[in-house]
Design brief:
- With 147 residues, the protein is mainly alpha-helical.
- The protein has a domain of 98 residues: Homeodomain-like (Arc Repressor Mutant, subunit A, Orthogonal Bundle), CATH 1.10.10.60.
- Helix content is 69%, strand content 0%.
- The protein is elongated, with a radius of gyration of 21 Å.
Length: 147
């Protein structure tokens, strides 16, 4: 059986540098070939080492960065979803919806509605008038239980 390949410190540092670059430039087009060229390595080598070090492929990693950004924007801003899509680096709204659905098991609009409910619930829970023994069970109810 072949011994499992392990990254060496040089490789770890190079991939760390590349992932840092990805985190700060996720809203740009970041094709693997251009990133490899920027960091003076071959696309094949980058792809192989990236998977070895991170445990995931380059494109998957980039999509996860973009989806996390979109989730934060959906949760903490009132920006239109189309704008969030563009600011998250997705080339099209249809790709954004497809990838978001793949990672989050719901559409961006459903995610936003769900987080709106969660935010309202947290606000009600932090209101001292609502934190009594009589109202606490009602506050903790799901929307379906509330009627």
């Amino acid at each position: 059986m072949a011994q499992e390949e392990k990254p060496i410190p040089e490789q770890l540092q190079k991939i760390y540098t590349i992932t840092s670059y990805m985190h700060t430039h996720f809203d740009d087009k970041l094709p693997l070939s251009e990133v490899a060229e920027k960091f003076a390595i071959s696309p094949y080598y980058l792809s192989r080492q990236f998977k070895l070090v991170t445990g995931t492929g380059y494109v998957t990693y980039l999509q996860m960065i973009r989806i996390r950004h979109a989730q934060n924007e959906l949760l903490y801003s009132k920006k239109p979803i189309q704008q969030i899509c563009e600011e998250s680096g997705f080339p099209s709204f249809s790709q954004f919806n497809r990838v978001f659905q793949q990672y989050c098991a719901m559409s961006p609009s459903a995610f936003r509605k769900d987080t709106d409910h969660q935010s309202q619930l947290l606000l009600r829970r932090s209101d001292p008038e609502h934190n009594t023994k009589a109202t606490l069970p009602r506050i903790l109810q799901t929307p379906e239980e509330q009627g």
